[in-house]
Amino acid sequence: MRVLLIAVNQEKAPYAVAPLGAAQLLSVLEAEGHTVEFLDLGFVTRLRSRIREVIGRFQPRLIGLSIRNLDNCQYARPCTYHQQARRIVDIIKAETEAPIIIGGGAVSVLPGELAEYLGVNYAAVGEGENLLPAFIRALENQSNPAVIPGLLVRSAQGLCMQPPSFAVEPDRLPLYAYDRIDYKRYFRRGGYIGLQTKRGCAFHCIYCNYPTLEGRRIRLRSPRQCVDDMERMVKDTGLRDFFFTDSVFNWPTSHAMAICEELIRRRLGIRWVAYCNPLDLDADMAAAFKGAGCVGVELGLDAVTDEMLRNMGKGFTRNDIARTYRALNNAGLPFAVFLLFGGPGDSFGNMQESQRLLKEFGKANAVFASLGIRIYPDAPIYQTALQEGRLSVQEELLQPVYYLSTALEADALAGLDRLARREATWSTPADWNSLIVNLVQRFLGRMRVIPNWKDIEAYGAYLRRQC
Ligand code: B12
Ligand code: SF4
């Protein structure tokens, strides 16, 4: 079948992120013998004419839209992106009657709401590698698609959906179609080559919707296969900077260590960054990371005190954080810490204590502190918010709703900003949203200074005076 895959651009989204999911589906569909045209709207300015031109020339029988983001998840300055997706759907509908199926991170989070808002009849929840070929078969055979796991069907009778199966085995997947992504352009905007080494996350953070996106069962792509993929992409593109897009790269530990060993053995000269968890990030792992080309670790701590770590369901303690600080500093690995204040039981006193503790643990290159938890229907915090009467079941979550502990409701943002001003490495949404910081980030991206947060201390204080 002739399938047009469109990766919806997020004009105002932070960072330039290549459409990994859509490119993965492209390679799967081509392997099954379909003819696929790929349109990444990431850098397209004249949307209407570009979409019209492609549809006119290619005459697709099916259009798949990959929608990554709902919004920027920032309580301080919320910005929603679904309006852009609607504009694109309207342009498509004016050109063709081919069925439209939507998928991607944003769709998995709120499939019914997005299908209604966009006026499309098919939405995919979770991974698309089995779902999309099955959907095409159903269209070709004129059979009922409503039985396909993970597919939401919208009809005159309402919405009906089968739960997703999360049955994809990463090792069986062909490498995603990196050659159809204009990576050089993404690199000029500070981007990386993305690579996923596994699916699933076994942790239970109270605000997290990742189980809806990838499931809980951890499914690995073998270390050898991952490094084969990297080697191939380096050879073909000449680019060497990677971002491991796993929710937690260093878990399971043995998998992360095996990838490092393979990278060390092959000496590919690769630089990489990954999200990590402090649970098992000790001296041995830090040394392996360093040897394998890691240039930055992004630590998703959210909280620091044991009480708030427990309340947020993080599964590690402040002692684990202290050990990871020591290990990363001793290995000379740059790292950034991500904090998320405002969870159940949080208070200004806890924010101050968190800052004191982190200082005691040592030095991080950057600390990104934000406030307010975006509520998603499948995350445990949704139930807490309902029980506490902060949300009603009818609440429209396409417009972001944030959880904020009662003790932090008044003046919390200003309080966080004041706290951040005490440390040159700390920043808050007030900094990230400033024009000058964004210009500096763009410049660093263009110069390929990665990760762009590693020298924040050097210019952070100066930038603050300008903001
Ligand atoms: C890695 C990551 C990042 C990295 C990306 C690094 C890189 N170079 O790629 C960084 C740190 C830069 C980042 C930034 C942001 N991110 Co992010 N990120 C992720 C993460 C963990 C993985 C994304 C990924 O690559 N997955 C691997 C690919 C293969 O999967 P996929 O794209 O989802 O595609 C699969 C399915 O969705 C489906 N599918 C996709 N398209 C289609 C289309 C059709 C037709 C069908 C049928 C199926 C389908 O099939 C694909 C294959 O199985 C996800 C969470 C998650 N676990 O998914 C969040 C996630 C995508 N991010 C999110 C957000 C919010 C952001 C930011 C806005 C955060 C911020 N304020 O800075 C920015 C936006 C950046 C941008 N320009 O888009 C949200 C988006 C939803 C939402 N809440 O709006 C997610 C889902 C996390 C969450 N909490 O909900 N992110
Ligand atoms: S926040 Fe990260 S570690 Fe926690 S459940 Fe979600 S993906 Fe897993």
In DSSP terms, counting alpha (H) and pi (I) runs of 4 or more, how many helices? 19
What does the average pLDDT come to? 94
Hetero groups: cobalamin, iron/sulfur cluster
Strand neighbour order, sheet with most strands = 2-1-3-4-5-6-7
CATH fold label of the largest domain: pyruvate-formate lyase- activating enzyme
Query: Which band does the percent of strand residues land in?
Result: 15-25%
Unreliable residue runs: none
Helical amount among residues, as a percent range? 40-55%
Structural account:
With 467 residues, the chain is an alpha/beta fold. It folds into two domains: 2-161, 3-Layer(aba) Sandwich (Rossmann fold); 192-466, tm_1862 like domain (pyruvate-formate lyase- activating enzyme, Alpha-Beta Horseshoe), CATH 3.80.30.20. It is 40% helix and 17% strand. It has a seven-stranded mixed beta sheet with strand order 2-1-3-4-5-6-7, sandwiched between helices. A seven-stranded parallel beta sheet has the order 8-11-12-13-14-15-18. The protein has a two-stranded antiparallel ribbon with strand order 9-10. Strand 14 (335-341), helix 14 and strand 15 form a beta-alpha-beta unit. The longest helix has 15 residues, at 223-237. The mean pLDDT is 94. The chain binds cobalamin and iron/sulfur cluster. Cobalamin (B12) binds at residues 10, 13-15, 17, 20-22, 24-25, 64-66, 68-74, 101-106, 108-109, 124, 127-129, 131-132, 191-192, 194, 196, 209-210, 213-214, 243, 245, 247.
